[in-house]
Amino acid sequence: MKKVLIADDKATSRELVRTVLEKEGYSVVEAADGIEALENARSAEPDMIILDLQMPGLDGFSVLEELRKDERFHDTPIMALTASAMQGDRERALTIGFTGYVTKPIRLQVLRSEVERLLRLLR
Fold first, then answer.
1. Rounded CA gap, 28 and 98, in Å?
2. What H or E segment, with its residue span, contains residue 79?
């Protein structure tokens, strides 16, 4: 069973993602902010990580930067999740090291497809 970490300061977003992923057969670990995301990633070593870009403490960009410094996460698919999608944000996120990008409000089929695509990269 693949393990996915969802880090988002909005409980409703975490709950939605968790529900969708658990129905697809994934194990889900949650974090409510950037610091907790780093701690949970290091302890759980998930197969994939989903990071909200705007979280208190450390934002998703900072969490990504810290995770990529750790060799355990060099090849881990890390998806950006954001409500404030401006033109060029997707390209910027992918350029700095995110491997996927999904906007809020979350469209369930888009989320499922992107998670499946990114986890296929591990095979």
1. 19
2. strand 78-82
Domain spans of the chain, in order of start: 3-120
- Token duo for residue 59: 């934002």
Spatial contact of 46 and 38, defined as CB atoms under 8 Å apart: no
Whole-model pTM above 0.85?
yes
Q: Which CATH superfamily is domain 3-120 in?
A: Response regulator (3.40.50.2300)
Residue 85: closest CA among 56, 60, 112, 67: 60
Q: What is the pLDDT of residues 64-112, one digit of tens each?
A: 999 999 999 999 999 999 987 677 788 889 999 999 999 999 999 999 9
| Residues 55, 82: Cα–Cα separation, whole Å | 10
Q: Which residues have a Cβ under 8 Å from the Cβ of 112 and sit 6 or more positions away?
A: 20, 24
* Averaged pLDDT, 14-41: 97
What is the SS3 assignment for 66? helix
Beta bridge partners of 3: 27
